[in-house]
Amino acid sequence: MxxxxxxxxxxxxxxxxxxxxxxxxxxxxLAHFWxxxxxxxxxxxxxxxxxxxxxxxxxxxxxxxxxxxxxxGHGRPLSDVFVELFSNLTYPIAGLHGLYFxxxxxxxxxxxxxxxxxxxxxxxxxxxxxxxxxxxxxxxxTEPYVIAALGLHPSITFLLLAAHAYxxxxxxxxxxxxxxxxxxxxxxxxxxMAVPLLEALWDRAxxxxxxxxxxxxxxILGLVIFLRSFSSEARVSGLGLKDLLTTPITHxxxxxxxxxxxxxxxxxxxxxAINLEIALAVIGSFAAxxxxxxxxxxxxxxxxxxLWGGIKSKSARDWISAIRKWNWPPGxxxxxxxxxxxxxxxxxxLVLAYPLxxxxxxxxxxxxxxxxxxxAVVGATILLTSLIAFLxxxxxxxxxxxxxxxxxxxxxxxxVGFGFVVQKEYSQAWADQRAFWTAxxxxxxxxxxxxxxxxxxxxxxxxxxxxxxxxNMPRVLNQIYTFPAEWKTPPRVFRLEPGWEKNLVNxxxxxxxxxxxxxxxxxxxxxxxxxxxxxxxxxxxxxxxxTGPLTIDGKTYPLKAxxxxxxxxxxxxxxxxxxxxxx
Length: 583
What we know:
54% of the residues lie in helices and 6% in strands. By secondary structure, the chain is mainly alpha-helical. It folds into two domains: 14-427, no CATH class; 444-579, no CATH class. The strands form four sheets. A five-stranded mixed beta sheet has the order 5-3-1-7-8, with no helix packed on it. A two-stranded antiparallel ribbon has the order 2-11. The longest helix is centred in the N-terminal third of the chain and has 45 residues, at 77-121. The chain is elongated and about 85 Å long. 42% of the residues are buried.
């Protein structure tokens, strides 16, 4: 007799579901957007968003249509399309706050869809706890990042919608929906292969469906890769055979370990960074989570027997035989069977979140690279919640349920605290940008066509989770000012790399700006005469223009001499009011 994955209990009340639909956005806002009023634009935001905002909607729609047709954006055009479209629509309503509210809406929608997915296949206690854990996923720290929230997280939206469609029996529709994931941010695509594991019965017909589903998913992926090859997508056509074979395997081993390990590491980071605000957030969340968890009925799994008394010794051969026949291992309580299937489903989904993460290190735990874990949120959350449910199963036998409730509440509350740590860094990164550009601008009013401004990195600061004055600095100045159209090489500001002095001068005596000397997009690498260069020392918390010659290897190179020339009426650009403090 098959054991159903769902539990023989009455459906969750409509009032309870409404309560979760209200609670989930509240947690998302608290953990990821509480300080969003002090967030700004970071890294790729500066490249994409200002242009999208300033483009008229009809022109933008025409551009985005062409973008989709030609599979621009590394073969996943929907990512940039969503960012630019949402930015254009929301900015006129509420400025930058509108962008962050749109990102908050996407993340909240995903969390609600995940909750409703768990509601289909598990007990109310499991669904509610899983939804809380989803909101506080520990590995990915890019939730507040506009590019990620509006451009990458919709891939999870498509994944969850496809999962709902598949489990509702609308399988053909689900394959059309999942295409949205692969053309948005493909790392979540393979997770869809494991969705049949969430079905109630794992019988012979189900196994045939699973094989057919896997073949369809792989065939769709192959077709998309074929299409991308025609678009000259470098990340597909430029991969060597060795990388194609080994990277998915190594990432699928390392990534899940890092994702699950982050649940243990994040609370430690919170305790190291604790201050009054974080402490208040943790304490308040602890009380709220404790109240919610204490009302959950984990015995709805149907557990009656003592776990330890329910296990009878069986030989390894009996276990292997049962597993080979897809049967439940002999001796284990049958009541654990649904939970084991959920845990296995989560583990498989977690592993499948990493084979397509070719371009990012799978062990990333800080900054933009943590998007490598984006697709792991579904599998990691189901696996974590399965472990929590198992602990409650044991705690019931030991009369320790109340202690476990408050231990879980403390764990979740610390994850909220980590959200505050991340938000603080986003806020600090924007403040660092404003301070730098406000101090810089009065000292470079004599800049002309061809001027190159270099900033030593030692005083620029480095926030871990959000990039402030980093690689995209050369794209900022021409958005603070609008330079004359006839200037073919407008002034740019570059952040130098540590040790830049030994690589700065090339064989022709020119200053070279490339990967060895500066942090900048490769498309902006250049060379410049020393007399066109303005150099700034950033040590001691001050921004100081160097007026004397620069000495390297015993040779002196004169820098651009300061002049009394002032700003010849440059028009203010989009970023001026955001980055320049005129008080």
